[in-house]
Specification:
38% helix, 278 residues, Alkaline Phosphatase, subunit A
């Protein structure tokens, strides 16, 4: 496998705040270096359910993760497994749920917080965080610049074909302050500023880059249900592929087959949605 792609997931950012507050990403859209669409999550628009759907390309009603309290090893084809079958190298810098869904469960803090497993059929190089003790006062999230640097290190050290980064900072901030607030204005600004220097680095290393979310958040800091605020978010793409018209509403279930197509890996029969980048 020669192609390379990174998926950056900033948890819990509604569409309007992407377009309003991420000045670096929007600047690249204006310059033509990136393209942006609106994407809609599955239901429930709950974090763990969305994570599982992002990687398997099937609904929660099919993969079985109905919420954050129902996390287990999913027995369906996913991006990691299909990249590995095609001969690619995979990596993840994410919340521990991703390791449980796509490598092994339950998550063992000592065994699974960091691993390098070249022969793994799923995740070869994992660096995870758990947010143990999370609540509205203590967010328990790592610094995002540390996560971006860790992914870059894995790319340089191990030659990842596919890498994913996931951070809950903005989701946690949104639950605490809601998205129409000075605190969220600054949090989105800070995230955009931390992320921006890494995108040219990743592009120079030969990666196509996707920056997106798993779901949105509504005016009361909630998600899980229906509606544009809870379900819709922005999808930014840096790369050479052709995409749909800019006003197309993208389906979250199409993300997994799209990534596999960009990487040159076969799309399993369980992923029914059509790829939207060619």
């Amino acid at each position: 496998m020669d192609n390379k792609l990174l998926l950056i997931i900033l948890d819990g950012v509604p569409y309007a705040n992407w377009r309003r507050l991420f000045g670096n990403l929007e600047g690249w859209v204006q310059s033509g270096d990136a393209r942006v669409w609106r994407m809609r999550s599955v239901l429930p628009s709950t974090s763990a359910s969305c994570y599982a759907s992002i990687h398997t390309g099937v609904t929660p009603q099919v993969h079985g993760c109905t919420g954050n309290e129902n996390v287990f090893r999913i027995g369906l084809p996913d991006i990691f497994s299909e990249v590995r079958k095609a001969g690619g190298i995979t990596g993840a810098v994410t919340h521990s749920f991703w390791s449980e869904f796509f490598n092994r469960a339950p998550f063992d803090l000592v065994r699974d917080i960091e691993y390098d497993e070249p022969d793994s059929p799923s995740i070869n190089h994992g660096r995870f965080h758990t947010m143990t003790g999370y609540n509205l006062i203590n967010q328990m999230t790592p610094s995002d610049v540390d996560l971006f640097a860790t992914l870059t290190m894995l790319c340089a050290r191990h030659g990842l074909n596919y890498g994913i980064l996931h951070t809950c900072t903005l989701d946690s901030m949104g639950h605490r302050f809601f998205h129409d607030s000075r605190e969220m204005d600054h949090a989105c600004y800070a995230m955009d500023a931390m992320l921006a220097p890494f995108i040219p680095k990743w592009r120079a290393m030969g990666y196509e880059v996707i920056v997106t979310a798993d779901h949105g958040q509504d005016a009361r800091g909630h998600h899980g249900g229906t509606g544009e605020l809870q379900q819709d978010f922005a999808f930014y793409y840096f790369g050479p592929a052709e995409g749909p018209p800019k006003d197309t509403l993208l389906d979250q279930l199409a993300l997994a087959p799209t990534i596999l197509t960009r990487l040159g890996a076969p799309v399993p029969d369980s992923m029914k949605a059509a790829p939207f980048l060619r």
